Predict the 3D structure of the following.
Amino acid sequence: MYIHICIYIYIYVYIYIYIYIYIYTDFLQSFCIYTHIDCFGTSYKPHSRGYITTAPHDERCQGNPNAPIQWDNNAKIANFLAAKAMAASRGQSIRGAHSVRKPKDMLVSAYCYHHRGKEFGSPIAPWPEIMAMGPEEGMMALWPLMSFIIQDMVNLYRDTTAEEMFHVRFEEIAPSSEGFDKVVQGLFHFLFAPMVSEADLQRAWQAAKVEDLNVDPNFTNAIADDGHGNDDECLRAGQEAMMRLDPRLVQQLKDWQALLGYTTENWPDPIIG
């Protein structure tokens, strides 16, 4: 899912929200829609590319650096540092959030996702060839661009502080409602407390529950209802195939996993789909 979202709400901090495909993009998109629109009154302009803006015309965040709440689908440390500098020039601090997932799981998930034809034409994959490729060939075809995406994620995790960046881990938010609620509440408090009242934060949290697929995996109005989930059998077969790839590539995935704060003691640990 490729999304550019701008939300124009003037508060006393800059907020940057980053996503990575094959993680939990739909929740963070819904975070913007359900909390800021339904709860906080921001207007929403539907657009095929996923814009959210109060402007009367199509806008992109990178063209509006003064917007104090930014959504950036190109999650690069340089983008964050530019936003941080903009905030500092106005005497403001910055708070950001981005999603994190085990790199090996991202690569396997990317293969399974595009192999079944999702996001046909995406530049991440060769089309239509990816749909006929086995997991080893398919992951190698995805590797050139996926490796850049993963490195960007690692850079943002490694080169920001706990005071300025909240890490939304897929492995914590996706498997259970308890995990979902804990992460969402932590995210909202990190970004908005104490500027937003506790009552409004609770309303935002309740609104975001629509994206908890553990509650209702068939909820048809959820943004996540676009087939982002992958088949468990494909994920298992993909991980087995991943271990047969070039040992240097496999070691890179393992090293990245460690840099992101995950254990590698039981490598390769079971994939969480």
The beta strands are 6-7, 13-18, 69-72, 93-100, 165-169. The domain at 6-259 is CATH 3.40.50 (Rossmann fold).
